[in-house]
Amino acid sequence: MPATTKLEGTEVMKAIVVTDEAAGLAGMTLAQRPEPAAAINDVVVAVHASGFVPTELEWPSTWVDRAGRDRTPSVAGHELAGVVSSLGYGTTGLSVGQRVFGIADWHRDGTLAEYVAVEARNLAPLPGDVEFTVAASLPISGLTAWQGLFDHGHLRAGQRVLAHGAAGAVGTMVTQLAREFGGYVIGTGRAADRQKALDFGAQEFVDLDSDALTDVGEVDLVFDAIGGDVQQRSARLIRPGGRLVSVVGPVEARPADGVAVDFVVESDRAQLQEIVQRVRDGRLRTNIGTVAHLDEAVAALDPAERRKGKTVVQVRP
Ligand SMILES: NC(=O)c1ccc[n+]([C@@H]2O[C@H](COP(=O)([O-])OP(=O)(O)OC[C@H]3O[C@@H](n4cnc5c(N)ncnc54)[C@H](OP(=O)(O)O)[C@@H]3O)[C@@H](O)[C@H]2O)c1
């Protein structure tokens, strides 16, 4: 890929784009796209690092805009850490040159690119002592865990939390935050995930392939990052008044005497600041698996190549 050039009077940049929904991850390509312009209340950010959630290629917002119109070729990626390079009309609260991190809008071109335009309210200032690679790993997994546990799960100290996918990007955040706020965490996953889940703070671990989920006993909160049959079996474990929180689509199973919620994470400046402060003072550890440069990212995003944990793409050295 040649260095960024000028094409037909427009600045162009390197970006990873998708055009073919049926092709999935195999359809990702490194391409040249026009640099984005800042709309009202936007900032344009020079991206230093971008987080990637592979399932985003299954989300409708990757393919269509809010009006349902085809928006391909779409730039992939939604998490970012970088430096503000310009402000849109009327934008307040952030300034050019400021380090920021957060979540880019679902329906617009994303963060696997040299520049991205984002509504300023979806970003938080990034303290100077937090590396861009670390910061880019936090927004989706950290905010999903925070909102699932506290906003939707109503976690209180002393409650028992069943955290599915506890060794994953979201699950390790769920486990650490639930422990900090006084929850008792039973993590789940595959046999190979046991040690990692325990290292991140789970007090028990259930291997979903060979342990009996019913042995867990009653729980107050199920945080479901797996879904399907696992969700069905978990709903029966929820105490009266308890909650099932799903981040994998509409809930398919409801507790007999409790609440079931599914949600999509929203960016939240105050919560981003809570999360990054915990990383700075050691209360939260990141779970970064693969780190690749934008030029090599297409190969690194292949499921066969990707290591477990959060995938982060470095855009600038
Ligand atoms: N609603 C939202 O706002 C939101 C936000 C973030 C993420 N999500 C969703 O949440 C899910 C998890 O995301 P993530 O980034 O944490 O992914 P991840 O890092 O891949 O973590 C998922 C974990 O669950 C394990 N797992 C999956 N299926 C399993 C099964 N049937 N039995 C045992 N273990 C299983 C995975 O193991 P393997 O790697 O071995 O499969 C992995 O350890 C994804 O579906 C993602 O789309 C939703």
Automatic annotation (TrEMBL):
Transmembrane segments: none
Alphabetical list of InterPro entries matching this protein: ADH-like_N (IPR013154), ER (IPR020843), GroES-like_sf (IPR011032), NAD(P)-bd_dom_sf (IPR036291), YIM1/Zinc_Alcohol_DH_Fams (IPR050700)
GO molecular function: oxidoreductase activity
Top-level taxon of the source organism: Bacteria
Annotated Enoyl reductase (ER) domain residues: 23-313
Cross-referenced Pfam families: ADH_N, ADH_zinc_N_2
PANTHER family: ALCOHOL DEHYDROGENASE RELATED (PTHR11695), RETICULON-4-INTERACTING PROTEIN 1, MITOCHONDRIAL (PTHR11695:SF294)
Annotated protein name in UniProt: NADPH:quinone reductase
Organism, scientific name: Actinocatenispora thailandica
Upper classification of the organism: Bacteria, Bacillati, Actinomycetota, Actinomycetes, Micromonosporales
